[in-house]
Amino acid sequence: SKVNAAVYQDILEHFMLPAADQLYGDADFIFQQDLAPAHSAKATSTWFKDHGIPVLNWPANLPNLNPIENLWGIVKRKIRYARPNNAEELKATIRATWALVTPEQCHRLIDSMPCHIAAVIQAKGAPTKY
């Protein structure tokens, strides 16, 4: 289905909150997202405020600084040769492949962010090799 603000908030409620609780416990964290319409909707901003979750201010169209884009790239490369026959098989393939992503891969992406930030600053916001 299309992800609108209500669907996105449901995902946040049922998946992000439990994951954040597991990862951070009572520690503070800042949530990062892009400016997709469901993310930038007033209702979604209200949801974050109501849950006391700060959201990183994010410029439009800047995938250079979004580790999830690189993570999706990993998943896409892993499923490149899969040949699902229908939408359900595609979804199952994506879920199975996503489950193979290791915490170490995620940490490497996070640890690479200072280099990405420095490259964007050096390029004055223009595209970089990342």
TrEMBL record:
It holds the Pfam family DDE_3. It comes from the Eukaryota. Residues 3-91 form the Tc1-like transposase DDE domain. This is Tc1-like transposase DDE domain-containing protein. It comes from Cirrhinus mrigala (Mrigala).
